[in-house]
Design a protein that fits this description.
Elements lengths: L2 H33 L4 H11 L8 H20 L3 H15 L1 H8 L10 H12 L4 H19 L15 H5 L1
Helix pairs in contact: 2-3, 3-7, 4-5, 6-7
Protein name: TAT leader-containing periplasmic protein
Length: 171
């Protein structure tokens, strides 16, 4: 076998394998999307990273806070302007697909399989990226998570914020 034939065959085989893996994982993801149409699984991985230090230390309270935040994220995305919602959906779909992950993060490892340090490194690289698109992606995800978490009055105490009392001012 000639060297050129071997290299061409190896490249063609690798390309077919990559396409097969991408096709297989895409069909896998579409099944998951039917069960998780609002990107809840993806955000369940990102919320603890963005809210590190803000979430309660007790496991049950932490889980409840994350679940309430995930519900609020779903609502927050639903009331966004259509163009903003479309951009967020496109970003989330890319993060759930292997090809999108490869483009955005340089790895095809799903975010759900990464540890917290890897996720922090990924988000920090987006935050300090020279590409405005990556910085915007980071800021968009961060703002959705933070706004959704702090939308709940029970979390305001950590900010040392108290709800204004208009009735007391009237007396």
């Amino acid at each position: 076998m000639e060297r050129r034939t071997f290299i061409t065959t190896a490249l063609a085989g690798t390309a077919c394998l990559a396409l097969g893996v991408n096709y297989y994982s895409t069909s896998d993801i579409s099944v998951n999307r039917q069960q998780d149409s609002k990107h809840r699984l993806l955000f369940s991985v990102l919320v603890p990273v963005f809210l590190d230090g803000a979430l309660p230390d007790v496991a049950a309270l932490k889980r409840d806070a994350i679940n309430r935040t995930l519900d609020t994220i779903e609502h927050t995305i639903s009331i966004l302007p259509l163009d903003t919602k479309a951009e967020i959906e496109q970003l989330l779909e890319m993060l759930e697909g292997r090809l999108g992950l490869l483009i955005l993060t340089g790895s095809v490892t799903p975010l759900m399989m990464r540890n917290q340090a890897e996720l922090v490194d990924m988000l920090q690289s987006w935050r300090s990226s020279y590409l405005d698109l990556m910085v915007t992606a980071y800021q968009g995800l961060r703002e959705i998570v933070m706004a959704s978490y702090y939308a709940s009055p029970e979390h305001w105490s950590r900010l040392h914020y108290a709800k204004p009392s208009f009735l007391e001012d009237m007396n």
